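Action item from last week, closing it out:
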Amino acid sequence: MITSVTLPNPTGWVKAATRIRREPMTEPTHLVGTPQPQDRRLLRRQMLADDVYEAIKTMLMDHVIRPGARISIDGLAREFQVSSTPVREALARLESEGLAVKEPLKGYRATPLLSLAEFDDLYRFRQLLEPWAARRAAELIDAEGRARLKAELANAVEPTSVDYAGYKSLTAHDNRFHLLIAALSGSEQVRLAFERTHCHLHIFRLHYDRDIGPEVLTEHRTLVEAITSGDPTAAESAMTQHIENSMSHRLRRIYE
């Protein structure tokens, strides 16, 4: 059973997970519903893979593994005291999220940070897609959609520190929130197009700022109010302003 993975250090920068400890499983009690040995092995393997994935993801998000740097599978396996298998599985997942890239005959590298041109391109795409999705969501909203939006907003947590550990919950909420609005637009193509950008991981990888959390959540509340009240114009305007604030006021200054 996985008992711990060391992630953030006291200074706020993530240190590589230094040890993944295993404890022997107790003998089965033969109660109804007790996992069989094969099921327990699969569960342990999944827990191990998930912990290694989170550890490497944190290192990438906090630049412990620097953007563009080569990622040593063997080195990480030694550091985590695991086999290379969960490391490879984790890197495959991270590649699908755009945080790592696999180079033929060379292995994995950390994805470089967005260039200014890529950053502008991403936000132009979002401005084309998301205000329309918010307008359409307000036009189509029903009781279930209202409940889902309000529940997602209620689950949002402000960041606790200026690193990925502190921002992890907000990053996940931000992605779910925008993906939910895309889904509520009724267009599967819009939802898929947004999902494939993995934009929230790339954005939060650029910069953490303690002030971002309250601003983002205030703007999310405005969006929820507009969509749940069935006001398409207000919803479109709120999303346009939300994206503009993120692009111009909070992030573009990084490149200046």
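Closing note: DSSP finds ten helices and five strands in the chain.
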